[in-house]
UniProtKB/TrEMBL annotation, chain A:
Entry-linked PROSITE patterns: TAT
Keyword Signal among UniProt keywords: yes
Subcellular locations according to the entry: Periplasm
Name of the molecule in the record: Spermidine/putrescine ABC transporter substrate-binding protein
GO BP, sorted A to Z: polyamine transport
TrEMBL record, chain C:
Gene Ontology biological process terms, A to Z: transmembrane transport
UniProt keyword Transport present: yes
Protein family per UniProt: Belongs to the binding-protein-dependent transport system permease family. CysTW subfamily.
SUPFAM superfamilies recorded: MetI-like (SSF161098)
Protein name: Spermidine/putrescine ABC transporter permease
Transmembrane segments: 48-65, 111-132, 144-167, 187-213, 247-266, 297-315
Length: 369, 267, 328
């Protein structure tokens, strides 16, 4: 079932789609949105630090209700069904998913003037090209993640890990793993194409041909891979059990291993990779807008809060100066050399419809091959 | 025939070895699970370099885990009660009675047990939407109850087939109507079967992930919570939760068994 | 628990049942109940109708209903239906399966795996059930059986991860083998059809064990002994007596396990490798993506279930034929 839970990027929501369609507003309101002294948040495990939550509640008297979610699609489907009377105030969207939420009028533009602590966010994240859509800001960046090449330092050298090619080399045959959907984007990048497929929006034939090429590449190298996995926990277990020594992963799960003392390293290989940013967003027609702004301003108040989110999740904090609150090990697990960061680009949403209509069948074909 | 006991002894030892090997196969993963709950690390797996009790003590300090456990137990108990009620009724109808459509009714009765998990979850999901059942506790109970009915029917029918007819007739002769005869004779006779079926139902409900996931609302059941926790890694915490849940359910089970046994004796 | 007729007599002798102090006695004596019962039991036909109404209603609405609803969805072009969109009926979803060979591979793989794992489960649990039913004293049988049930209280996911740390490269099995110097490089058990089998047999053993146990338990001991007296060896006794006599248990156990294993989802995904994708994963894929893929998922689920039923029916026939063949 892990796929249901973890697959961040696909348009998910099996249960959620129906759950959303079925749950009557009355039912949800009873549970979530009564009274004014509340703020309702949908987010991932560990994204609201417990200590911050307690402090916020005692200082403001606003009760924080957190509903843990597993993926973007689930939030999208739930929210879409609840509109125009959502029960949620703040939700957690990945930046490259903004477009879908905004087009469906699910998010309210963020009034950054109401956030006195907006300036505490590193401008790399708050002022990036994906962060402004239709002239508005839509969310407060809190954590950032990326696709990395992780390797067991006892068996693989850093030099080898600087290129995605090593993942497909005979030398590590049967000792590698990757998330197949994510790998498709990266393979396109390896081949010198635009993995976001924005460049081919006007040329569907070219797009189809590129996906086909990437698909053939992965089928060709299928005998070398140990496992196509879905969730971070699986990746961590394979590393701990030494079933694999090298694999593609998100930096969060890899960082958690490093912080636990596992001999793991990670790189952004020279062919490049993709990053994503989690943001806190205010829902359109949110029932407790004022409380939501109070919450956002409070959570952005101190880099220490950003650091504690990083400690819990392994993703990189978007706060200025958050790293001064991290241990040496935590710093190491959440930072990359400048020259590697230069290879990073962010996922973009513009071509998602076309991209995933091509990618999904390709993934099925690779699995079936 | 002197050689006979020896002949059987050879078989017996061989079979005993297989049995205990099977017990080993079934228990080694469990032992590993319990053991990993003591590992002082955020990940399970060998080697274990240092040990801690924190994960286990943490389980009792975590209000969410405790309430989720209660929620799962409530779902299991309520769905089991429904399954037992419906299943026993169906069994009484089907056992030892000939009527047109009996075969079809039996086939339909066992259908939910034969439908593969994911398909059944999806079918329930679609049907719940059709009926207008909201996702949440009620929907989960409903799906678990329906799914478990066939197991109750099969177990109860087996027991019912051995009920001496003369007893019912005697009661009817004494003027008891069918309902009273059922409540005072058939039902007490079925108690062992119903207890057995209950254990099975409780177990199926408590362990169910797919149906709970598809039909759940805001609160997670224990397996669903474990999935949410899994997102930040398979930590010894999850092993500790599972172990504590195992011990608690076993304790509740033993207590319930003792309790019913004592009740029966007193009656 | 047996019916104790003396309870009835404990009331005042010769009194009407109404004087019976127990709850049921009082209920019987209560006027409205009495009238109700008289109406309900006026004729055997009416009595049967009252008994049968609820179960038949239940199985039709609760057991058949979900399956029919799924069938209906599989024949539509959109579900859930967005407001303002016209829903129409189509066979396209079924055509999609037959039109694209990438779906056939996981489909046939699932059926093959289910058959192989069912057979493995049978071979592994038969001796266990045999031992339980034939060689363990009646008093201990329940205990021994319960011992085997305990692991099923642990969630599928936790158990599956436990199997990972059992079979991983640094797992318990490799550790033991290494300790005894049997290997110097770990054996890669994980993410193969082997590790998947270990996980699946674990899940299905219970469903096989119980029918086998109850079939074996009914088998009269004397038959084996008589055969032994006649000089039949263990294998002959098994083949000529136990096996034919328990074919019903085998057949129902196998049916249950086969059908259940075609629906496994989490375990094959977590324990399987790149070449063990099962059909349940393909089906689930359609329910992950946008709503308009639901009908395709439902159609694929229907195809899977129909195929599994056909195979099971054929298997049951074969078993019936075997049983009849043995009798003549």
């Amino acid at each position: 079932m892990s796929k249901l839970i973890y697959n961040r990027r696909r348009f998910l929501g099996t249960a959620a789609a129906t759950g959303a369609a079925l749950a009557s507003p009355a039912y949800l309101r009873r549970a979530m949105a009564q009274g004014s002294g509340e703020v309702n948040i949908w987010t991932y495990n560990d994204f609201v630090p417990e200590s911050f939550k307690e402090q916020f509640e005692s200082e403001t008297g606003i009760k924080v209700n957190v509903r843990l979610v597993d993926d973007q699609g689930k939030q999208f489907n739930l929210l879409a069904a609840e509109q125009p009377n959502p029960t949620v105030d703040i939700m957690t969207v990945a930046g490259h998913r903004f477009l879908q939420f905004i087009d469906s009028e699910l998010l309210a533009p963020l009034d950054t003037d109401r956030l006195s602590n907006w300036g505490n966010i590193n401008p790399t994240f708050s002022e990036s090209d994906w962060a402004t859509i239709n002239g508005n800001k839509w969310g407060a960046p809190i954590l950032s993640g990326m696709e990395v090449l992780s390797y067991n330092t006892d068996y693989v050298t850093e030099e080898e890990a600087l290129t995605w090619d090593t993942l497909f080399s005979e030398k590590y045959s049967g000792q590698t793993a990757y998330i197949i959907q994510d790998m498709m984007s990266i393979v396109m990048l390896m081949m010198g194409y635009d993995g976001n497929m924005v460049a081919y929006m006007d040329d569907p034939e070219k797009a189809a041909q590129i996906v086909e090429e990437a698909k053939q590449f992965l089928i060709e190298h299928k005998p070398l891979v140990r496992k196509y996995y879905d969730g971070g926990a699986e990746f961590q277990q394979m590393m701990v059990n030494q079933d694999i020594v090298l694999g593609h992963s998100w930096n969060g799960p890899a960082a958690a291993l490093i912080n636990d003392g596992f001999p793991l390293g990670m790189t952004i290989p020279r062919e490049g990779s993709y990053g994503f940013v989690y943001t806190y967003n205010i829902a359109n027609n949110a029932p407790n807008v004022d409380n939501a702004y109070t919450f956002l301003d409070a959570i952005l108040a101190s880099p220490e809060i950003g650091a504690s989110m990083t400690k819990a999740s392994g993703f990189i904090s978007t706060y200025k100066g958050a790293d001064q609150y991290l241990t040496e090990l935590e710093k190491k697990s959440t930072s990359f050399p400048e020259e590697q960061l230069a290879n990073l680009q962010f996922f973009r949403a513009e071509a998602n419809d076309m991209k995933y209509s091509l990618l999904d069948p390709a993934v099925e074909a690779i699995k079936a091959a | 025939m002197n050689n006979r006991p020896e002949l059987f002894r050879g078989n017996r030892i061989f079979l005993a070895c297989i049995y205990w090997a099977f017990v080993l196969y079934v228990f080694v993963p469990l032992i590993l699970m319990v053991l990993m709950g003591f590992k002082d690390s955020k990940f399970i797996g060998f080697p274990i370099r240092s040990w801690t009790l924190d994960w286990y003590t943490g389980v009792f300090a975590d209000a969410e885990v405790i309430s989720t456990f209660g929620y799962s137990v409530a779902i299991a108990v309520l769905s089991t009660l429904i399954s037992i009620f419906v299943g026993t009724w169906i069994a009484v109808l089907l056992e030892g009675r000939k009527f047109t459509g009996r075969g079809v009714t039996f086939g339909l009765t066992v259908l939910p047990a034969l439908v593969p998990g994911i398909i059944s979850a999806i079918a329930f999901r679609i049907y719940a939407r059709y009926l207008g059942i909201e996702p949440g506790m009620g929907a989960i109970i409903w799906a678990h109850a329906v799914h478990n009915v066939p197991f109750v029917v099969l177990v109860v029918m087996a027991r019912l087939s051995t009920l001496p007819k003369s007893q019912i007739e005697a009661a009817r002769d004494l003027g008891a109507d069918p309902l009273v005869a059922f409540m005072r004779i058939t039902l007490p006779y079925l108690v062992p079967a119903i207890l057995g079926a209950s254990i099975f139902c409780l177990l199926l409900s408590f362990d169910d992930f797919v149906r709970s996931f598809f039909l759940g609302g805001y609160d997670p059941t224990l397996p669903v919570l474990i999935f949410a926790k899994l997102r930040s890694g398979m930590s010894p915490e999850i092993n500790a939760i599972a172990t504590v849940a195992l011990v608690l359910t076993a304790a509740i089970g033993i207590w319930a068994e003792r309790f019913t046994r004592r009740m029966n004796k007193e009656n | 628990m047996t019916y104790d007729a003396s309870a009835e007599r404990e009331g005042r002798p010769g009194a009407r049942p109404a004087a019976d102090p127990t709850f049921w006695g009082r209920l019987t004596g209560w006027g409205p109940y009495h009238v109700l019962m008289r109406i309900a039991t006026a004729s055997p036909r009416r009595q049967f109708a009252i008994l049968a109404a609820f179960p038949i209603l239940w199985v039709l609405t609760q057991h058949l209903g979900p399956m029919l609803q799924m069938l209906r969805v599989s024949l539509t072009d959109a579900y859930p239906v967005a407001p303002g969109v016209e829903q129409s009926f189509t066979l396209e979803n079924y055509a999609r399966f037959f039109g694209d060979s990438i779906f056939w591979m996981p489909f046939f793989r699932t059926l093959t795996f289910a058959a192989v794992f069912t057979f493995c489960t049978l071979v592994i649990t038969y001796p266990v059930a045999y031992f339980l039913a034939r060689h363990v004293s009646r008093r201990n049988q329940m205990l021994f059986l319960l011992l085997l049930l305990i692991p099923f209280w642990v969630g599928e996911i936790v158990r599956t991860y436990a199997i990972m740390i059992l079979l991983g490269n640094t797992g318990a099995v490799n550790m033991v083998l290494r300790f005894f110097g049997l290997i110097d490089r770990p054996i890669p058990f994980m993410y193969t059809s082997f590790s998947m089998g270990v996980g699946i047999v674990y899940l299905t053993a219970l469903y096989m064990l119980l029918p086998l146990y109850s079939a074996l338990e009914k088998l009269p001991k004397s038959m084996n002994e008589a055969a032994a007296d006649l000089g039949a060896g263990a294998w002959t006794r098994f083949r000529r007596i136990s096996l034919p006599m328990t074919i019903e248990g085998i057949s129902s156990g196998c049916t249950l396990v086969f059908l259940i294993s075609t629906g496994f989802y989490a375990t094959p995904i977590l324990l399987g490798g790149p070449s063990t994708t099962v059909f349940a994963e393909t089906i689930a894929g359609f329910f992950h993506v946008a709503g308009d893929e639901w009908p395709t998922g439902a159609a694929f689920a229907t195809i899977m279930f129909a195929a599994a039923l056909v195979i099971t029916a054929a298997f049951q026939r074969l078993m019936n034929a075997l049983r009849k063949g043995d009798r003549t």
